[in-house]
Every structure is written in structure tokens, then in C-alpha cells.
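User: For a reading group we're discussing how well predicted structures match intuition. Take Noncanonical pyrimidine nucleotidase, YjjG family protein. Before you show the prediction, I'll give you the sequence so everyone sees exactly what went in.
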Amino acid sequence: MFEHKVTDIFFDLDHTLWDFERNSALTFAKILDHHKVEVDLNGFLEIYAPINLQMWALYRKNGISKSELRYQRLKKTFDVLNISISDDMINALAHDYIAHLSSFTHLLPNTLPVLEYLFPKYRLHIITNGFQEVQNKKLKRSSIHHFFEKIIDSEMAGVKKPNPHIFKLALDLAEVRPENSLMVGDSLEADILGAKAMGMQVLHYNFHNDPNHGECRMINDLIEIKSIL
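Assistant: Thanks. Here is the predicted 3D structure of Noncanonical pyrimidine nucleotidase, YjjG family protein, as C-alpha cells, for the group to look at:
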């Protein structure tokens, strides 16, 4: 289905291979209980999830810093819930969230079978906007680190997807031409349009149930990759 021969596949990590929503929920259950913050977990997560996506969208556009992202997504959530909480507690929760997030290791359905299928046939890599100190731990503790030759993150690149520089850096490090590369990710803006602008081939893993678009093929389960490649 791809116009050019694919030799290298670049994956996004969160919401593509690593089950961010599930692992994040388990992390919040642990740290909210530890700090004795009395809040209904499901109600908290329902408010937090869209706020977190909004904050990440701002972060991608350099609208906020890493520290502001970590603070504001919690502050805004507690504000919506009308829960009074000190800045010291928010900062403690923000710190512990990052410290414990990678200790949970759930992967999205069919991640392992697909990586095991692709590994002998293609060179596999990661391009992520996540924070360097967390992403490497996620890969290692989830026991998928060994599948990937190059792991490129936004802190290493100095820019975030969809900025073309992070894709160029990934291609240069992997020593591969863009037309022989495939980017697989969940974000239309960051992964698909960003990689496509660099001349890479793209495959949209539709984790968020985005509406159909004409940019590329969309899949709803990673296992579909086995019938494509």
C-alpha cells in the first residue's frame, strides 16, 4: 500500500504503544492516596484528561514550559473540581507523578505481537515528545526497549513534533531517506502531518477516534499493521 519500500519504522510512544491512560490512572491512584488528597479518582481523571491534552498542545507550540505543564494541568483540574489545594501539594503531586509514572508498564493491545512481527523485517525507532527521563524508563520497564535502534525525544531535538527538525534528526540518526521511512502515531497534527511534511510515509493509529481524513490510511488496532507490512 506504500508508494516506496519501507525499511525503517518510527513509532510514537504514548497512546501508540504505551498505554498512557491506564498507567496514568494507576499513578494518580497511588499518589493521591499517598498524599491523602480526598478526591473521587474517576471524577478527577474525567476532568484531568482533556486539560492534560490542552496543556500538551500548548507545550508543543512552546506556549508553556515543562514545569508549567506539570503544574498547570493539576492546578486547573483542582480548580474545576472546586478543591482548594496548596501550591506545595500540587508541586509534590507533580513531582511524584513523574517519579512513579514509568513504574506502571501496561502496553496498548497487540503492541508486543506487532513489534515481534516487525522486528526481524524492519529497523524500528521511537520519536516522542515525552520527557527524556521518563520515556526511556517506560521503554525499559515495559520490556520493549530492545526492539528500537534509535530513540529520539523532543528534549534531545530541542523542538517538538510536528516541528520538522525532530523528524530530520531522527532520519539522520537512523541514516535513512524519508521516503523509505514510515511514521506510526496517534496524533494527526504531531505525528502524521509532521512526518508527512518531511516526506515520510505515514500511518495513523486512530486511538482518539478522530474523524476520517484523507491524509493517510487509518487503523484502529495495531494488529492491522501485520496485514499492511
